[in-house]
Specification:
It is built from ten helices and ten strands. The strands form two sheets. A six-stranded mixed β-sheet has the order 6-7-8-3-9-10, with helices on both faces. A four-stranded antiparallel β-sheet has the order 2-1-4-5, with helices on one face. The chain is 35% helix and 23% strand. The longest helix has 20 residues. It has 276 residues and is α/β, with parallel strands linked by helices. The structure holds adenosine-5'-triphosphate (ATP). The site of adenosine-5'-triphosphate has 11 residues, from strand 2 and helix 1. This is ABC transporter ATP-binding protein.
Length: 276
Amino acid sequence: MGDAATMDTAPPGAAPAGRRLGPVILEVKDISLAFGGVKALTDISFDVREHEIRAIIGPNGAGKSSMLNCINGVYQPQQGSISLRGRTFRHMNSRQVAEMGVARTFQNLALFKGMSVLDNIMTGRNLKIKSNLLLQALRIGPAQREEIEQREFVEHIIDFLEIQAHRKTPVGQLSYGLQKRVDLGRALAMEPQVLLLDEPMAGMNVEEKQDMCRFILDVNDEFGTTVVLIEHDMGVVMDISDRVVVLDYGRKIGDGTPADVRANEDVIRAYLGTSH
Ligand SMILES: Nc1ncnc2c1ncn2[C@@H]1O[C@H](COP(=O)(O)OP(=O)(O)OP(=O)(O)O)[C@@H](O)[C@H]1O
């Protein structure tokens, strides 16, 4: 029987694709979350190191999205703490967590379908805008300069994600795969230190998945962004992750390198008992 507590075996600085991992940037400690009588998470602890790609996997209802929602302040766990760069945050809302450098994408896209790609990504830039609303509305002085700078940054993201041809297109007219890419762009517009991705490949065809994998690796590599992702596609998880946390019925049953979790009997049992 695999022992989750002894699976944290990634050697310091090790990463499958030759990535150099830094110190712990995000620490999740003894998190428990319940909705009435439903225990979504029980005593979950794990850490994420700077520059790491860390996956959270598990069968349906295992608590993966609840975990991301605790990290980014959507849910307030009844127990435990979450620290970013050693700073513990309790009872912070999503905006405050975002201001600390944590951005996320969503399982069910939350884009403004009638707005263009450019404007959707621009909404992710709002946190960075310093001038006041009146100056922005009048587009004068520092506000005008600032808007130009922000737009340049957004254009850079559009180029990076190779969606130049769609920059003026209303998002609702794009394929699902491209909409997921715009969702990633909006999160990147926040220049996050930690990027939380909730099923970034869900509903994609093989080619779209390959593209998304490449963009996640490029974001990690070129911007040095730490990535925490939930994903059901095991091929993708095993290919791109440095370490994997496995949840089942709200409990952690495995934690380690892809090879570690693949060999963990508890993990194998949890997956054999489901349709995944
Ligand atoms: N807002 C909520 N209210 C009540 N119960 C909830 C809520 N959010 C999650 N749960 C419950 O918590 C448990 C964990 O759900 P969660 O969505 O976190 O799992 P998951 O691993 O992300 O599942 P999936 O892979 O299907 O998305 C489930 O039993 C779910 O029904």
